[in-house]
Write a structure and sequence with these properties.
The protein has 4 domains: about 1-100, GIY-YIG endonuclease, CATH 3.40.1440; about 125-305, Rossmann fold (3-Layer(aba) Sandwich); about 315-360 and about 415-550, P-loop containing nucleotide triphosphate hydrolases (Rossmann fold, 3-Layer(aba) Sandwich); about 560-650, Ribosomal protein S10 (Alpha-Beta Plaits), CATH 3.30.70.600. By secondary structure, the chain is an alpha/beta fold. Helices cover about 30% and strands about 25% of the residues. A hairpin with a 2-residue loop joins strand 25 and strand 26. The protein binds zinc ion (2 copies). The site of one zinc ion (ZN) has 7 residues, from loops. One zinc ion binds near residues 375, 389 and 394.
Amino acid sequence: MFIDVRLLHYKERSFTYLVPDTLQSQIKPGILVKVPLQSRIVPAIVHSVTYNKKYNFEIKPIVAIYAFPDDKKYDGFIAKISQYYQVDSINFIKRIQKFLEEKEKPVKTVQLVAENAYNKIVLTDQQQQVYTAIKQSVDLQQHQTHILHGVTGSGKTEVYKKLIEDVLKKQKSIILMLPEVTLAVQFEQLLKNYFSHIPVIGFHSATLVTVKRSLWQLLLDKKTCIIIGVHLPILLPISNLGLIIVDEEHDAGYQEKKHPKIHSRDMAILKASMYQVPIVLGSATPSIQSLWNVTKRNWQLLQLKERFAGSFPKIEIVSLKQKEKRACFWITKQLHMEIQNRLERKEQTIIFLNRRGYSFFVQCLCSYVFTCKQCSVSLTLHADQLLVCHYCNYNQTLPTCCPECHLSQKDFLKKGVGTQQIVSMLQKLFPQAVIARADADTTSKKRSWQQTVQDMLEGDIDILVGTQSIAKGYHFPKVTLVGVLWADLNLHFPMYNAAETTLQQLIQVSGRAGRQSQESKIVVQTFDDHPVYRFIDETKYIQFYQQEVERRTEVGYPPYKHIAEIEIRHKEQIVAETEADIVVERMQSYIEHKKLQVEIFGPVSAVVYKVKGVYAQKIILKSFVRSNMIELFADIKLKQFKSGMFFVIDPVG
Ligand SMILES: [Zn+2]
Ligand SMILES: [Zn+2]
């Protein structure tokens, strides 16, 4: 047996080695081996396996194989994902073992205080009912998909803990998925305190290499453990898997931002079905897709309709168009007054602004707009007069005069609104308040975000201003006011699920208020009224689902029909455009020939058609049958193109 390998540290070059008979049974593409190279022994990844090939020179044998946990169902599962996303399986197997050869980067993590530590779980009647229903499939170790629709603050975590306890008693392991690393870290701490006798281990980008190694050893030894993460745990070989929990299952954070755009919730569902184990999808705002499957695929819907403590906040919709005089356009009188009250009562406020897709840009009176040289987007103005590209991180200081007409900086128009600007406005309005910010700029620095979460929990922050990251499942007991600065900002975003994601965010961020207090409030500022605001009252969420499904069925969007996206990328615009046309032609004839049921839309330039100097064209596919779209793209992959071809099935935005 011969293998072609790529060296882990010099990826471009490929080498061939011989595998001694004794090691052959353990070899598969994607695993790590040690190979001799000149006078050294270096790590490499197996790319392909060949038999009976004749070489007219000597092939050296590999030295060792890194042990890979034994899991009978693993190869089948990875093959399925690889087929579904049309990506080589090596990509997946490689990702979960890279750490074996990584050096520890020194990182300081913040110890988060976990509430509910050590307390014995006492379930409410509703929690008990939900728990009993799921426990049946846990006890029988039977595959079933349960949707746990629990209103914000209903104590889904308590139900999870009870279920985890039951699974541990069966000597089985658990995967718990969260849509964001900081949330994963918070849960790790919480469960570590509670399950002190069982290893609770994170497996995500913030996990230390030594911790990953200890998890790997547990998997090799088939020991019981609780594994927490965002994407990676799904890709691990776990022979004694007993339960998967996906919390905040509606969250777009489960779809990877880079290609291949794996949706980890969907892969968790696939894994649960292939491993024949139960799966729980928890959310206060279940995705339309998941609720649809209750009727279409017999998933079980369980509901927690009451809050564990506190009560639902009052909702007030306020128009930004009202003409009253105010110190700052973005803080209406109503919101101003409510914040003032909170400061007096020493309660906390969250201010939410989601800027996705629109930014705070600078324009000269001559109409010149500062744009990125490499991307087709305007630059965003940050503090310290810094212009930043949100797509490639290019930055420059705001010039003192316009490069076109040489008008001075003081005549520039600054359009839109950003979190940094809101923080400084609030600081002027409320000089005595402690104000913190949480958005992509701060949350990507994981440590500082963990610190902010901690300060918030300890009551050291009066007002937290943030983008979508603050809407994700955090439990801040002292928050009694949430101000949504610009609710219709993304409602008109050109994506079929804009109303769904907007409503989910509004409910989620509103759910941060009134966790412990009986009196809390949401102020929703908007330019125009919109029918979705009726459903911010989360007890009406299922009504929203029914209405939304009707609308999507009419226009043929998911969940009624499935969609997929093909992205064609090239440095030269003309190449991307020409090849996109060729792709469409080839697909059309393939569809006719094979009698597939797929509709093709496009090609069109992507909304952001140029990123880092690379042009992108998009083609959208729609079909009742996912496998038809996959087959179609598989055929495209057979042809040689100059452009990069990327396939995204079930894109969520
Ligand atoms: Zn750029
Ligand atoms: Zn100008």
